[in-house]
TrEMBL record, chains A, B:
<keyword id="KW-0238">DNA-binding</keyword>
<protein>
    <submittedName>
        <fullName>TetR/AcrR family transcriptional regulator</fullName>
    </submittedName>
</protein>
<dbReference type="InterPro" id="IPR009057">
    <property type="entry name" value="Homeodomain-like_sf"/>
</dbReference>
<dbReference type="Pfam" id="PF00440">
    <property type="entry name" value="TetR_N"/>
</dbReference>
<dbReference type="GO" id="GO:0003677">
    <property type="term" value="F:DNA binding"/>
</dbReference>
<feature type="domain" description="HTH tetR-type">
    <location>
        <begin position="6"/>
        <end position="66"/>
    </location>
</feature>
<keyword id="KW-0805">Transcription regulation</keyword>
<dbReference type="InterPro" id="IPR036271">
    <property type="entry name" value="Tet_transcr_reg_TetR-rel_C_sf"/>
</dbReference>
<keyword id="KW-0804">Transcription</keyword>
<feature type="DNA-binding region" description="H-T-H motif">
    <location>
        <begin position="29"/>
        <end position="48"/>
    </location>
</feature>
<dbReference type="InterPro" id="IPR001647">
    <property type="entry name" value="HTH_TetR"/>
</dbReference>
Length: 187, 187
DNA sequence: TAAATAGCTAAACAATCGTTTAGCTATGAT
DNA sequence: ATCATAGCTAAACGATTGTTTAGCTATTTA
């Protein structure tokens, strides 16, 4: 043993995540990462391998936040009301710390959708796409809904969620609340 | 006078637009532009000044498409039904030529939202934000709606439109149709 | 206290970025 | 036919990209 690190990886990766969240992957440089993470390039490379590695670790960090929300969502048992709460929680997560950059996962999906980045794709598909199934589960708790209605409403809610994420960037809290209430008015 | 150009600027800029649409600005290189536009770097610079100029001209080209749709929307006079048709037209525009990259203006807004690019910001604000007013105008055609209802519904429709644009990237035509019908069920 | 070693600093790396330029080609005008 | 000129080709520009490395610093261990 010799010197010990002057930083904690869990802390600097949070800072990296916020930078990627604001700028996206392609528009974030190693110079910016150095400044934002508060450590030298050498330290970044020794801890995370390369820029790509920093990004993947940032995604994991973000997904941990999302996972907490998902767990809460799954563990509740109030049907549609849970979905509505999930919408409100999503807004809180997208807006934390004054951030107004929507959802990092959605942004990443958009930025990498044309590329064939295996690692990023893997990280993405593990989260995108199962949202609809979660909604379907919750909607099934209402015995008065038939299967066709459930499918249509689930699909509707997935796309409504997209609108919501986009909304967190430019709309006021009141407008967002109005949107959510309106969305669930006839569900 | 001497030689005449071997390309038409209106044609090569369309090709540039499609590339920017697919990749975004930052992730598009001059090399890619050369290949996609089918002309040399020199020709690109002599026609459009620089990469930034190519992008601004591409935005104008895209906005021309959108403008056509907006004009149709404004000139009709069937209230809410016009808005619904506008949603369907939006999907057609976002998906033309097998493209699945959402709306170029929305994407550009997202990519440049953290930067302070005066020219791009100008091009953006001239289109974003007035959508709500257009919706309000149409909703006013229904005398049974009071002002508060109109405001809420207009806000809801703006965000629903965001969901729709995101939807064109990953959802089937049937799912998108379901979403639109559901959105207008209680408007 | 001294040797060993892991972390840090800062300079340099090759590759690619957007951009410019020198020289060649082709065409309109005299 | 020839001169002038605008367009094209392709090489090179400096700056910045992500990445590596040599040399110094500080701390643990014996």
């Amino acid at each position: 043993m010799a010197r010990q690190k002057e930083y904690k990886e869990e802390e600097v990766i949070k800072k990296a995540m916020r930078l990627f969240w604001r700028n996206g992957y392609g528009n974030t440089s190693m110079q910016q990462l150095e400044k934002e993470m508060g450590i030298n390039k050498f330290s970044i490379y020794s801890s995370f391998g390369n820029k790509h590695g920093v990004f993947l670790e940032s995604l994991k960090c973000y997904k941990a936040k999302v996972n907490t929300m998902f767990e809460k969502f799954k563990n509740n048992s109030n049907g549609v009301e849970d979905i509505k709460q999930f919408f409100y929680d999503s807004v809180d997560l997208c807006e934390e710390e004054g951030n107004e950059k929507g959802c990092l996962l959605t942004n990443t999906y958009n930025e990498f959708s044309e590329s064939n980045d295996a690692l990023v794709n893997e990280q993405m598909t593990s989260f995108m796409g199962n949202l609809k199934n979660l909604f379907i589960e919750k909607l099934r708790m209402d015995p008065s809904k038939d299967q066709e209605t459930i499918n249509k409403q689930a699909n509707y809610l997935v796309l409504a969620k997209h609108g919501l994420v986009a909304a967190t960037r430019v709309n006021t809290p009141k407008e967002i609340e109005d949107y959510i209430e309106m969305t669930f008015k006839n569900i």
